[in-house]
Amino acid sequence: HIQVPLIGSLLGATMVAPFFVAQKILHTFSQSLLHLVSPQLPHFTNEFASENKAAARRRLTRIMLIFVSAGAAGYLGFYLFSPWLVKVWLNKPSYLDATTLAILAVDWFILNIGIAASWFVMASGRTPFVKTTIAAAVLNVLGILVLAPDMGLQGVALAGLMSGLATQNVYAMWRGTKLRSELAA
User: Fold this and answer.
1) I need a surface site. Which of 82, 84, 166, 171 has the fewest CB within 10 A?
2) What is the pLDDT of residues 17-26, one digit of tens each?
């Protein structure tokens, strides 16, 4: 959420709209994608709490495979088709460059895998994500402050990707993988 105000203050108001539009498209898809996971969580929690580890592991594995597959297709679609969508929908001939779109697509793909994994971890009764979430936010702001002046919107997108990889997103995926391994025992 801090990216848009920072873009305005560091790069100028004209740079806000293209990035904001891309974020809104990504956010809309992300929320739709996460609906594949949320209805499964009460069932997972029930299986986990009743110590039906095999059923909980199957559910986690199946949902994550579907989620990752749908996410890969959707974020590739964002990269390929959002310029056309923006041109037709908003009647704007210019948008983000291909590199920035690619960085955003990869970032949101990884981010959403981390979110889905963290939801399963939290559904198992654990909430180990406070420190990594704060660290991701701080690194994102610092990354934007360092990268945006020289790289523009690519720097903003790269700061988000790098801060997530260094903290929250990778940690959440690791915790999800660890939970899946615990369910095999």
Assistant:
1) 84
2) 999 999 999 9
State the Cα torsion 120-122-124-126 to the nearest 10°. Answer: 140
Query: Can you tell me the distance from the alpha carbon of 71 to that of 90, in angstroms, rounded to the nearest whole number?
Result: 25
CA distance 17 to 163: 23
Say how far apart CA 64 and CA 113 lie, in whole Å: 8
- Low-confidence residues in the chain, pLDDT < 70: none
> Rounded CA gap, 105 and 102, in Å?
5
- The answer to whether the beta carbons of residues 93 and 87 sit under 8 Å apart is yes
Place of tokens 């997103």: 169
Do 121 and 99 form a contact (C-beta atoms < 8 A)?
no
Which amino acid is it at 154? Answer: Q
Q: What is the DSSP string of 26-92?
A: HHHHHHHHHTTTGGGHHHHHHHHHTT-HHHHHHHHHHHHHHHHHHHHHHHHHHHHHHHHHHHHHH--
